[in-house]
Amino acid sequence: MTRRRLPEWLVLLLPAIIVIAAVVLIPLLFSLYSSFTPYKLTRPSTLWKWVGTYNYEKILSDAKFWAAFGRTVLFLTIVLNLELLLGLGIALMMNKVTWGQRTLRTILMFPMMFSPILVGFQFKFIFNDNIGLVNNVLQSMGFNAALPWLVDGKLAMFSIMFAEIWMSTSVFAILILAGLFAMPRDPLEAAKVDGCTPWQSFRHITLPFLMPFIYIAMTIRSLDVARAYDIVQIMTGGGPARRTELLWTLMSRTGYVDARMGLANAMGYVSIILSILFTVYFFRKLSAARAELGMAG
Amino acid sequence: MTEVTLSNVVKKYGALQAVHGIDLDIQDGEFVVLVGPSGCGKSTTLRMIAGLEDISGGEVSIGGRVVNDLPPRERNISMVFQNYALYPHMTVRENLGFSLKIAKRPGAEITEAVNEAAQILGLDELMDRKPAALSGGQRQRVAMGRAIVRHPDVFLFDEPLSNLDAKLRTQMRVEIKKLHQKVESTIIYVTHDQIEAMTLADRIVLMRDGHIVQVGTPLELFNAPVDTFVATFIGSPPMNLVDGVVEDGQIVLDGGVTLPVPTTAGRLSEGQAIKFGFRADNLMPAGHAVDEDGAVYELDLAVTLTEPLGTETLLFTNMAGVEVQGKMFNPRPVRPGEKMNFRLMLDKCHVFDAQSGHAIRR
Lengths: 297, 362
Prior knowledge:
The structure holds 2 protein chains of 2 kinds. By secondary structure, chain A is mainly alpha-helical. Chain A has helices spanning 8-34, 54-60, 63-96, 101-108, 110-113, 116-126, 133-140, 153-182, 186-193, 198-226, 230-235, 247-257, 261-292. In chain A, helix 3 crosses helix 8 (153-182), helix 8 packs across helix 10 (198-226) and helix 10 packs antiparallel against helix 13. Chain A is globular, with a radius of gyration of 24 Å. Chain B is an alpha+beta fold. Chain B folds into 2 domains: 4-233, 3-Layer(aba) Sandwich (Rossmann fold); 240-353, CATH 2.40.50.140. Chain B starts with a strand and ends in a 9-residue tail after the last strand. The interface between A and B is medium-sized, with 21 and 28 residues.
């Protein structure tokens, strides 16, 4: 009699399959399943109660969820655009620096080296309405008002965006700088001879060349910002009264504070759509920009 | 009328001086080639004319107007670059029309100018392609087309053919010459290739180490080089140079051969160390020469190596201990080591001062 043997290809793939299953597949299926149950962390037995699409229906009709969703999209849009503009500006200036550029490049990355939690604490202090740096400066300049930076809804969003931008603009700056380094000099000289002013050279030659780099930075940062949690949690905790609630603070509150993990997982699946949409959008733009330049793919 | 005048033009990079006070007058419609080995300052000079490099000293004027402080866009020049420098994100049509679009010319005029340039250079079928989809020769044609749409006062070419393969280079050389006949603009062309310089130029400017060594028509440089550098740079194969001294009104080469002084040579002093120069075309075996008139010196030499080229064969041999090259027309096969009776056309030989390298000519 012959022993049953697994086919060779399966044996060879098995280690990878096991790792992927343990790390990705099982948690994914488990969370997907639990989003169809009223799973509460405090009552594990609820995991076995199937409620169908109840959680999803609840989310889709929940004004708080949609407010957080909208706020996240707004947050993403403003932060990404400002980071792009600032990063582009910094990169263009850095590209002109001839002495000490390496050192500058390293310094540029400092904000990225800090833990976002610490950045959150730092800005929470800076924007504190009693003892914070900003209000102190304002008052010593003669403004007799203590602005409620982290209490007023709009100001609090501004403060969080400020912290986020401070921390991550260098991602754009560095990627765009890499693009500027890779850029051939000849077309710029040809443009000069063809009659371009410096602005026209930038607009018609440099910028199209940088677009692929910009879209790569956009993709990376959109995924990053869409899951913004730590800075927000530290600075405002999504409050006051949910006025700075983003998707992930809402989800963590639902899952861990209210212990309604089933509902939180359902929120996760809905909000992942957001990330996927942004990624697909920027990737489309990226390949279009690369095709423009005659690069493959 | 667009003459280009350089007077005492200097380029310094910090302590390093790349161009040492160049004077040059270029006539309207003239095709001038700046040629020289790499690092001789020819490209730098061209880029100063274009406005892509600052001028450290002296004056450049185009059409009588000093342009030292004008940006390139105000000089009304076009330039063709070695690496084509096409705009990668634009089609051929957009590349050609870009300068006119920037100048805010009306659309109909742009279309007309672009179509005209495309027709001159045979680009009609490539108009909607991006540069990445073009071959090297096609890219170079687009670069030239981009230069001509604007009808500039002066065309500048910076080694435009160096990135092409040999066959294409010959082809494009002809096209550039045709283009010049058609547009009749002033052209300043930089190359390190003496054949390009010879074939294209109305006048050649030969440069070395930031100085102009000689300016003249191709034949002037070929027939009357001012020094050994010009003699060996222009012409292929390079001129043969053999060391010798002047003794009793004759030239004694170091290896012991004694020759009469060529009729072209100027005053030589007794005992003067010289270099005796002659081209391969002036050392030919008896019966295989083009022209045996004039003073001829006969000598027997053993052929060490042959390079058949079809209509002629290059013969390598030793003369006074120095390897020299001769030529044989209507060639027949020659064995290495075979002794042949060579004829040296004395009227076409050159004498240079050994120390300074300068030609000694009547």
